Amino acid sequence: MSALLDERPMPERRPARFLAFGLVTILAVSTLTARLFYMQVSQGQHFAQVSERQRVVAQAIPSSRGVIYDRNGTPLVTNVPSFSVKIRPSDLPFSQRDQVVARLAGLLGIDTTTINMAIDGNPGSRFDLVRIAQDVPEPSARLIAEEHLDLPGVEVVVEARREYADGPLLSQILGYTGPVDAEELRQLRSQGYLPDDLLGKTGVEAVYEQQLRGVYGEENVERDATGRKIQVLSTVRPAQAGDSLVLTIDTREQKLAQQALEWGMSASRFKQGVMIVMNPQTGEILAMVSQPTYDDNLFSRGISQADYDKLVKDPNQPLINHAISSQYPPGSTFKLITGTGGLADKKITPTTRIRTAGYLSIGPFRYYDWNHRGFGTINIFDGFGNSSDTFFYQVAAMLGIDRLAYWAHQFGLGAPTGVDLPGEAEGIIPSNQWKQDTFGQPIYAGEVYQAGIGQGYDEVTPLQLLNAYCALANGGHLYQPQVVREVVGPDGNVVRAFQPELIRDLPLSPDVLTTMREAARRVVTIHHTFNLVDLPIVVAGKTGTAEFGLPDKNGHLSFHNWFVAFVPKNGDVSKPDSELAVIAFAYNAQTVGNPATEMVKYYLQLHFGIKKDYRLFFLMRPA
Amino acid sequence: MGVLRAEPARLRRWATSSVGFAWRAFDLQLTVYAVLLAAIGLAMAYSNSAAAGGSALEGGSTFSRGVVWAAIAVVVFGLASIFDYKWLKTFAWPLYFVNLGLLGLSLVIGSGVGGSSRWVSVLGFQFQFSELAKILMIVVLANYLASRQARLGSLMTILGACLLVGPAWVLVMLQPDLGTSLVLLAILAGMLFLSGASLRWLTVLGVTVVALIPIAWTHVLRDYQRQRLISFLDPAADPMGSGYQLLQSQIAVGSGGWMGKGLTNGTQNQLDFLPVQATDFVFAILAEELGFIGAMVVLGLFLALLWRIMVGAWRSRDPFGGLVASGMASMIVFQLFVNIGMVIGIMPITGIPLPFVTHGGASLVSLAAGLGILQSVNVRQVRAEW
To answer: In order along chain A (623 residues), what is the average pLDDT of each group of 10 residues?
Structure first.
């Protein structure tokens, strides 16, 4: 055996050093063990919580936004799933930002400036998602999702987008949804709005935001270090769907009104106009068309800068709902106020006859009638029917500016109507106080004349004016106009039923309004509105032509045309039973004759299915 | 006659005994401990591949690459065991220059993170020559010190050893690879100490090195290295930046508790909160998924492995063999302590792998070569001399 063993001498060994080495080793391993024991066993609970906290995040569950129907139950907007591309700036390293933005721009077909502006305009913090593009086509969305390793911080998410069935037809009423901005977020964060949230920006989408939105739920989500959602761990609170809206708008009437307005615009070559149809008995708006309009789908899809610039730079302001947000001089339509005031204040009676003339003089100034021959000595019926300016100059002078303003305010002019749409203008009704406050001067007698015929300082919105005539048509009840009829819960229960909202009953005797309705019928019957009287239905109303702006090189002023009308239910204007009132407004019409009257006539033909065409094309000759 | 008849019997007896002795001298325990550690490393690679999504068995996954490297390591270990280590003495100087050459090559054509040049692609595999350099350095140092058995007490022996390590150390620092350069120093110190070099001069040298640290801090270390060293002292100072790794690592370890979250269930791992889980920070994931118990098993295996290596060193009649074992032991202890210490926040981040467990071909194959040489030494201590 020994022969097989190594017989070389053992080298000199140093047991002390081996021992020392062994001790060092054991010391090292003991240190590690002690520290591991401290971390894993003593502090294990603490670290487990920390690990859990960063793994599990509470995340909002968006609720499904309520939809909107017209009064017949036709859906006007639906929620469609669409891809959005978002960036979490904290996950996008600065060194890679240019590269990622350039790649995204290529994939999305938008320019890098737009993306950079979106990132820099981020309303939330660096850790919140920023929406870069909405309604991304599926192939691009898939491509971006697949390239997520090369696009750090970029996420593709499915969001519900609003799809507006009729687009431009109802944009002014429905409005649209869009991304929350920094200021909105500051106010709404406490209500559970997220930095990348969508909300109603205008129209009923904005006014009824709270009802439409519903209540967001909350869930606990497992996420990875890059914030990507891995799985839902538990639902803390389910989302509650938003309520739906039923509008007072009748899509059919809206289309007819739009057809009438568009015809007028092409026949009379004007670029801005309004048409509103209301039920005087309830204040329900059946149609409200403001031209030019825009497609609200552009906004819900994420409007491009070029499209937006085009809309904003259009001098006719397609984004403005001219029916409620623009104010214009009412012209002769205002004579309703002057006439009613004169009768109610007993300055005149239905039989009082006033001498009209070609003009009235105050000192060196002449105030002309539109008819430079005058109408002779006439009563309120013929004065209103012929729209005699000199008649109403004198009635206005009898009332004085403050009583005139009083009656205008009673009819709801010079104050927002309170319609459930955003951005309503107030209008201007001059009074002594107003003139003093605004110009530091007393009002002059000539200005009172002008105020009596709706010229000078007077300005109203088309809706205010129509609503005033609705009060005439219904016997003195000023209702708040409404566009939303009902709010319906997600289960179909009516949350808020329709109810007319009375602003006030006019403080006057019903006889006064009966007189004025008959005077309005006289406008039609004496052919002031030409062949309108030939329609197989009874129409009463008032025309208006208001000059505005500065004279052109021939000394002519531009002018607007109005016609506001109502149709008594059974053909008897003495009864306050009308359920249909219409107003048409043409901004800066380019023809003589009153295109507004023709548009109302056309609308009534369409509405009542009158086969014969009464439109007077010959009147539409260039001014 | 009897003698003549006995001749074949003696031969036969010698042959069987020889193989038997060789087998008996072959340290099976050492091999088993190393294989178990490597298997744990593969299990962690498997878990990590599951985290990356897709099948762990797919080609190109961390796990499948780990299996390929493990197979290569087994072959290298076998070859190194069979190969007579004495030839290494002959080749020590050529190996030394091959070593420097490979490190120089890494500098020229290597690639790595942040402009460093650590990895060289070999047949599609990324290989870190500095790992091999550690083993070659052990062999070269062992040869040098073995040849100076009589003059171990002199300062010249110590300085000579330092001179040998010096060029390789500089090349590694140039990459720059702070971790490996520290391992080289640990190997040097451990081998000198265990070989019996003059304690007095070693102390003087140690004090000198410590005194040089402030100079190294300002002139040798790069910004990111300083940053990592600082953030170790206060990881919360920059939780999203340089301290992130450390905090996440400690959360991973701590949240493992007694039993761990279970293999492939570590959320720090699976959800990518902890970067470089498979390499330098593999122990964090191990502690998270296998818990304190799993960590203790790993530490126990390391202790057992080190015990067997030191037993080999003690038994070796050939000073060269003993020195190779001392070098291996020094290297493993140092890497073990610094790597796990880094993971649990008591050592700065230096990028030192955990032997056998860290996923990395170069590290595993180099360790296999080292252990193979040790086995070769073990086996050849008992063989009959002719």
So the answer is: 49 81 94 92 85 78 92 94 88 83 87 85 79 88 84 86 93 93 88 88 95 90 70 83 95 96 91 96 97 93 88 94 95 96 95 94 91 93 95 95 96 96 95 94 92 94 97 96 95 93 95 96 92 94 86 78 95 95 92 89 96 80 59
Q: Which two tokens stand for residue A447?
A: 């200005």
Query: What are the pLDDT digits (tens) for B127-182?
Result: 778 888 899 999 999 999 988 888 888 888 888 999 999 999 888 888 878 888 88
Contacts of B345 in chain A (CB under 8 A): 35
Q: Cβ contacts (< 8 Å) between B317 and chain A: which residues?
A: 6, 8-11
Which whole-number Å values give the CA distances from A200 to A133, A135, A161, A469, B334, in the listed order? 18, 17, 12, 32, 65
Is the Cβ–Cβ distance between B195 and B152 less than 8 Å?
Answer: yes
Of B98, B95, B43, nearest to B277 (Cα)? B43
Residues of B in contact with A230 (CB under 8 A): 271
Give the residue from B10, B151, B267, B272 with the most A CB atoms within 10 Å of its CB, the best one to mutate: B267
- The shortest C-alpha distance from A1 to chain B (Å) reads 9
* Residue B105 Cα to chain centre, angstroms: 21
Number of CB atoms found within 10 A of residue A187's CB: 10
pLDDT at residue B118, as a whole number: 65
A167 CB neighbour count, 10 Å cutoff: 15
Half-sphere exposure of residue B65: CA atoms within 13 angstroms, side-chain side: 17
Closest CA in chain B for residue A15: B314
CB A251 within 8 A of CB A173: no
Cα separation, B300 vs B290, in Å, equals 14
Q: How does residue B17 score in pLDDT terms, banded at 50, 70 and 90?
A: low
ipTM: 0.88
Cβ-based neighbours of A374, under 8 Å, separated by 6 or more:
A356, A357, A358, A388, A390
As a whole-number percent, the residues of chain B with pLDDT over 90 amount to 22
Residue of A480, A564, A568, A584 whose CA lies nearest to A267: A584
Question: What is the predicted pLDDT for the residue at A207?
Answer: 96
Q: How many CB atoms lie within 10 A of CB B153?
A: 15
Q: By C-alpha distance, which of A463, A432, A416, A452 is closest to A331? A: A452
> Helix and strand tally (H, E) in chain A?
21, 23
The four Cα atoms B294, B296, B297, B298 give a dihedral, to 10 degrees, of: 90
CA dihedral (B202, B135, B339, B35) in degrees, to 10, reads -130
The answer to whether the beta carbons of residues A278 and A285 sit under 8 Å apart is: yes
CB B119 within 8 A of CB B128: yes
Instruction: Work out the average pLDDT over B37-59.
Output: 75
What is the Cα–Cα distance from A191 to B79, expressed in whole angstroms? 72
Judge whether A362 and A449 are in contact, CB under 8 Å.
yes
